[in-house]
Amino acid sequence: MKKQALVAIGAVMLLSVGLAFAQDATPEMTPAMTAIPGSGMITGPADGEAQALTGAGSTFAQPLYTSWFADYAKLTNVQVNYQGVGSGAGIKAVTDQTVDFGATDAPMTDQQLSDAQAKCNADMLHIATAIGGVAITYNIPELQSSSTVLKFTPDTLVGIFDGSINTWNDAKLVADNPDLKDIAQPIAVVHRSDSSGTSNILTSYFAAVNSDWKTNVGAGTAVSWPTGIGQKGSAGVAGAIAGVPYAVGYVETTYATQNNLPVAEVENKANNFVAPTVENVSAAAAGFTLPADLRIMIVNGDGDNTYPITGFTWALVCPNQTDAGKALALARVFWWGVHDGQSYNTQLGYAPLPAPAVAADEALILKINVGGKQALPTDIATPAAS
Amino acid sequence: MAVTTAPERDTGMQRGESIFKNVVRITALSMIVLLVGVIILLAIDAWPAIQHFGFAFLYTSEWDPVFDNYGAAPFIFGTVVTSILALILATPFAVGGALFISEYAPKTVGSVLSFIIELLVAIPSVGFGLWGLFVLAPFMRNSIDPFLRNVIGPIPVIGELFKGPTIGQDLLTASVILAIMILPTILAIAREIIAQVPRLQKEGMLALGATKWEMLRSSVLPYAWGGIVGGAMLGLARAIGETMAVTMTIGNSSQQISASLFTPGYTIASAIANQFTEADTPMYFSAIVELGLVLLLVSALFNILARVMVRRMTRLPGGAAAQ
To answer: pLDDT digits over B139-179, tens only?
Structure first.
């Protein structure tokens, strides 16, 4: 009881702790990782580069960006001020050009893209910066000492979240989880109360695997949840699950591991039960032909080990820049991020981008221009392109 | 010399007087300008939603950002239920506490007690929220809720309030948190009012042979009643607008309006706090601003109700006799 409360308080403080921790993280910690081609091109300050950039958006990716930008400032003296105000607010801010870049976990809709044309005169670039997995986590006191984790199929998972499966010993759940046959307790579903990219990834997955969900609830950063209680933020959801027996919910993978919550395995398209490990999450992008603009939800992907509830998180940049110094700084920082910066992803619980996504990102970054002139210096871009 | 300086000083004073008068007039007017400004801004941003949903916004219960369909009924319901329940829970404690401090306790004990109670006001609401989430919610789920369900649940009609599974994050828990938060406000005002009761009036009662309780009932409470109701309404105003502590304990679910206090709910203020940052379609944004307007309306209605009640109370025979 007391321990649970402590764990839960820890959950709420996690964001701030996460940030502090993130600033200490250095790429030296993963020497084993093979460098992505195109890494190591940015080694110091550049002439004429803006010394300060501002960005706003996704809270999902905030720990990653905080960590990136702290080390990037040491490397190049460019200070990037990033505010985790939420994906929707990030899209709004970059559309109004009150920030230099936005960040989001849900790709901009066609409507939002055309709204953004007004000031930018082009489609906002979606530069993918990481892949994140959404973990299904739960609190069943009887199973706390158990070494096996729960297994969910797409049907049972949707059933729990739409309320049609409401007790833990439901026959459908027991079929894959014999341990549950004596747990005659109602399921307490916990979801996000605020709009979130995490909810968008989960509901996009539900919409992809279940047509009833698609027509009745749909996919989005905020939906009309058929059942359950809402909590603010991933930390709030993790705290509620830790504190409420027989609860189930979803959080970005890091939050589950840091709260010592069990993470369920989910059946993927290849009918294997898989956990959201870095490899399984990273594999998700491999099953898709990525569109050039990278605006794609990669849920329920092909592949034997692919974890099905995953998504990109993106930085949003207007390709047509007016200030040459800022354009140069933006092009360089994201070039660094999608190459050198990927070594940070694993430590912070995100999966690194697979090669095709990096290649698509490179093409997008090259589109950043001032008056039609490519902002990224050709000596950085050329080696990777060859 | 005195003859020449006196008028000069007078005109100087008159100028000072008129400057001061204008300064206070401006400060008073600026309050009104501020209120009108807020209402106008809210109305402008809420206009698309007001036009699109009309009055249905107030009584439909679908809140669906995916299909851009908005109705505020669950939020209005949650706000009204939690604030009124909080008031019902807090007022007896506040009045009893105030009576004890001013009439029964020794002076030193009374002043220490009221100091401690007033310190409660200084606790930020997120602090109450954390306590509510990690201490109160499990306690309600494990002890209070099952007790209420077993004891009051079987009684017809009232029993309907305590039915269904308990998670601990529901209308009842949010109301209890709110009651704790508004208690010191009501108590402080009640204590002040009770202290204002003329000494003669009280001693007169005692001299007539009344017991202490009889004295309190017939000379203190009728006199203080109007003020106590006023204090309760201040508490209610805080409860209606309270956001953080409620958001953390109410369960944030707009799914059902049910008689049971064990159902997770949602208040207007917590809906705004939760959803405003990522309201990404124009209609969603507009609907949330309209929620702000509705909140303003709800609290204005409660205030008007309070004024009417205070007037009624002071006109009662008891109150009239006291004056």
So the answer is: 998 899 989 988 988 888 888 888 888 888 899 999 999 99
Q: Report CA torsion sign: B304, B306, B311, B312.
A: positive
Is A12–B168 a contact, with Cβ atoms under 8 angstroms apart? Answer: no
CA distance B250 to chain A (A): 8
Cα distance between residue B303 and residue B73, in whole Å: 21
Instruction: Spell out the residues 6+ positions from residue B296 whose beta carbon is closer than 8 angstroms to its own.
Output: B38, B39, B42
pLDDT greater at residue B79 or residue A196: B79
Task: For residue A191, give both structure tokens.
Answer: 């979801």
Alpha helices in B197-281 (DSSP H): 199-207, 212-215, 221-241, 244-249, 268-275
Q: Are B70 and B294 in contact (CB under 8 A)?
A: no
Identity at A155, one-letter amino acid code: D
B282 and B304 in contact (C-beta within 8 Å)?
no
> Which tokens hold the place of A98?
């009150």
Q: Tally DSSP H helices, then E strands, for chain A.
A: 15, 14
Of B137, B165, B252, Cβ closest to residue A230: B252
CA distance A362 to A86: 25
Question: Rounded to an integer, what distance in angstroms lies between the CA atom of residue A20 and that of residue A6?
Answer: 19
Supply the pLDDT for residue B276: 82
Place of tokens 């069990």: A262
Cα–Cα distance, A311 to B63 (Å, whole number): 26
3-class DSSP string for A67-129: HHHHHHHHHHCCEEEEECCCHHHHHHHHHCCCCCEEEECCCCCHHHHHHHHHHHCCCCEEEEE
Q: Do B252 and A9 touch (CB under 8 A)?
A: no
ipTM entry: 0.75
pLDDT digits (tens, 9 = 90+) for B4-57: 555 555 677 788 889 999 999 999 999 999 999 999 999 999 999 999 999 999
In this predicted model, what pLDDT tens digit does every residue of A52-94 receive, in sequence order? 999 998 878 888 999 999 999 999 999 999 998 878 888 889 9
